[in-house]
Specification:
By secondary structure, this protein is an alpha+beta fold. The protein has a single domain (2-146), classed as Jelly Rolls (Sandwich), CATH 2.60.120. Helices cover 48% and strands 23% of the residues. It contains nine helices and eight strands. The strands form two sheets. Strands 1-8-3-6 form a four-stranded antiparallel β-sheet.
Length: 188
């Protein structure tokens, strides 16, 4: 568990043993079962989550028609939360659900701000992760605006082939914004 987090941080910045132990002391481990909510729409969001194992989805359910829109999948070595609610200390607009049994390390906003203020290396790590997240979000939005459903499918398959082994096709269809039937035609 701790080695996984350390390796994740050290992809960006090296840490001494004492620095890492101090950093790790700010995380809280959590175990969840398949179908359990990590974050529920309308709940207070106090933590960002580093995924140790398992698979989660972040989604928005349209109150008008009840349709689920999947914004993100997260698996080992990914971070996930409702960032609007986390950074603004507001109520969640997203639900985050476990697709598989899941283990995460939770980091509160208070602890994140504290260790970023105390350790330049940690602030640097989170800045780099945020920058990568902005780039990925921009790519996803542009893909939704300019690519056909088939092109989005091909991009997802090329980028994350393992996702197609782990996630039910109905969820992949929701992520791509297509029907299950349309997705079936792509995978033939």
């Amino acid at each position: 568990m701790s080695n996984q987090l350390r390796q994740h941080f050290e992809k960006i910045t090296p840490l001494t043993d004492s620095e890492f132990e101090y950093l790790l002391s700010h995380f809280v481990p959590k175990k969840l079962k398949k179908h359990q909510f990590l974050v529920q729409d309308g709940s207070h969001v106090s933590d960002d989550y580093f995924v140790l194992s398992g698979l989660l989805k972040a989604s928005y359910v349209n109150p008008g028609d009840g349709k689920e829109h999947i914004l993100q999948f997260a698996w080992e070595d990914w971070w996930i939360t409702d960032y609007q609610a986390y950074f603004n200390q507001a109520k969640a607009t997203l639900g985050i659900t476990c697709i598989q049994d899941t283990q995460v390390l939770a980091l509160s906003l208070y602890n994140r701000e504290k260790i970023c203020a105390e350790m330049h290396k940690v602030e640097h790590f989170f800045r780099r992760k945020s920058n990568a997240g902005y780039v990925a979000l921009q790519r996803r939005i542009l893909s939704l605006l300019t690519s056909s459903a088939k092109e989005r499918y091909d991009q997802l398959l090329a980028s994350y082939p393992e996702l197609f082994q782990k996630v039910p096709k109905t969820l992949i269809a929701s992520y791509l914004g297509v029907s299950r039937e349309t997705l079936s035609r792509f995978s033939k």
